[in-house]
Amino acid sequence: MAGCQSRARAVNRLLIEAGTADNERHVDTATNIDICVSHTYVTTMLTDELKKGSAEFLVLSLLEAQPRHGYELQKLIESRSKGVLTFHVATLYPLLYRMEGRGWILGRWVEKAGERRRRFYRLTAAGRAALDAQRKTWREFVAAINQVSGVRYV
To answer: Left if phi > 0, otherwise alpha if psi is -120 to 50, otherwise beta: which for 23?
Structure first.
């Protein structure tokens, strides 16, 4: 699209131009720079980046209540987020292995008659400490976003 500086600038305009159609051209009034807004690209990018940054936090949070297997974690994240967050097996299991390698979770194979064996993960003391630290960080992050954006949650 002629006149568009880059898709990267679209990230800064997403909230301001949220009501516009895909792939539109806008002029940033503060800088007089043409900006290309591609909401499909930006929304996907933001969702993927937010998922990457929150995946460990979500898994640790779900394991806090009880041990769970990977498929159960995947389905809980999807259902509790009302489908906004989805993790594919190709993403979730490597994440679980990394977290196990860090000592945050511990996996154990469980076999039940008539069912396939599953690896159940539970939170360790180190995982609980990581979860506490991540909760603190997320609270600070959300508070900062609220301060800047004026968004308030009831």
So the answer is: left
**Owner of token pair 């630290």:** 133
Pick the CATH number of 50-149 from 1.20.120.790, 1.20.1560.10, 3.40.50.300, 1.10.10.10: 1.10.10.10
Range scoring the smallest mean pLDDT among 35-39, 85-89, 110-114, 144-148: 35-39
Domain layout of the chain by residue ranges: 8-37, 50-149
Token pair of 84, please?
């906004």
The torsion defined by the Cα of 72, 63, 139 and 133, in degrees rounded to 10, comes to -140
Give the confidence band of 76 by pLDDT, cuts at 50, 70, 90: very high
Exposure b/e, 34-70, CB count within 10 A at least 16 = b: ebbbbbeebeebeeeeebeeebbbbbbbbbeeebbbb
Angstrom distance (rounded) from CA 102 to CA 127: 9
Q: Give the torsion sign (CA, 97, 87, 15, 40).
A: positive
For the segment 99-122, the average pLDDT, to the nearest whole number, is: 95
pLDDT at residue 14 greater than cutoff 70: no
